[in-house]
Design a protein that fits this description.
- It is built from 4 helices and 8 strands; from the N terminus they run αααββββββαββ.
- It is an alpha+beta fold and 230 residues long.
- It has a domain of 150 residues: Barwin-like endoglucanases, CATH 2.40.40.
- The chain is globular, with a radius of gyration of 31 Å.
- It starts with a helix and ends with a strand.
Length: 230
């Protein structure tokens, strides 16, 4: 009887030791798992996200505008450049907040815009067809000669400049004071705005105007109808 009791005690000890070993191993695994560093957030490029593409396009448009001002400066160029540099800084803040690659630049607002046919040679002494009158704008041309109610900027995508203020637009085609109607075909929202400054795009909306027509969470309008209304 005594021997059986001794063996029973040894078995109990062995079982307790085994249980302790398993429990200890599980605790080690749990501790290792809990102490593991979670992977950091990954940044998205313009190719991965419509939001990032829109912001990259806005950044590229502003950079191109600055390049144009530096290439052909006038008395107001420094003020315009300072304004656009502040806009670029704000766009970079939006890129970081959206998980995009900060500083990524693109100029996709002109993508898909069909090439314009070469104008026919005018007769001597006659103005060239579609040429704006003197003083209509620094870079006006092309669609600037369109009639009121005519669709313009065919094939252009639309994004935002990052500028604040009342709803407005900037353009490299239309002089200041031109009224343009922009319709987002993806949600059928429209806004009519006045061109108030020059940019590197056919039409670039400021923040307030873009908010009136954009889809939630998107900074690029791929399917837009743009009309000259005044």
């Amino acid at each position: 009887m005594s021997r059986r009791r001794t063996l029973g005690t040894k078995k109990k000890l062995a079982l307790l030791l085994s249980a302790a070993t398993v429990a200890g191993g599980g605790a080690f695994v749990m501790a290792t798992t809990s102490n593991a560093t979670p992977p950091g957030p990954t940044t998205k490029s313009a190719a991965d996200s419509t939001v990032c593409q829109g912001l990259a396009t806005a950044l590229g448009n502003n950079e191109r505008f600055i390049e144009g001002q530096r290439a052909n400066p006038d008395a107001q160029s420094e003020a315009r450049i300072a304004n656009r540099e502040a806009v670029i800084a704000q766009i970079k803040v939006q890129q970081e907040a959206s998980g995009c690659t900060v500083g990524e630049s693109a100029q996709g607002s002109q993508a898909g815009q069909p090439e314009q046919p070469a104008p026919s040679q005018p007769e001597q002494g006659q103005p060239e067809q579609g040429q704006p009158e003197q003083g209509q704008g620094e870079q006006a041309g092309g669609d600037a000669g369109a009639a009121v109610g005519e669709q313009v900027c065919n094939g252009s995508t639309v994004t935002l400049s990052g500028e604040d203020g009342a709803p407005a637009a900037s353009s490299n085609q239309f002089p200041v004071g031109t009224q343009l109607k922009v319709t987002n075909l993806d949600n059928n929202k429209s806004t009519t705005v006045e061109v108030t400054s020059v940019s590197g795009s056919c039409v670039l909306l400021n923040n307030a105007a873009f908010e009136q027509v954009r889809e939630e969470g998107k900074f690029l309008i791929r399917r837009a109808v743009i009309e000259k209304v005044g």
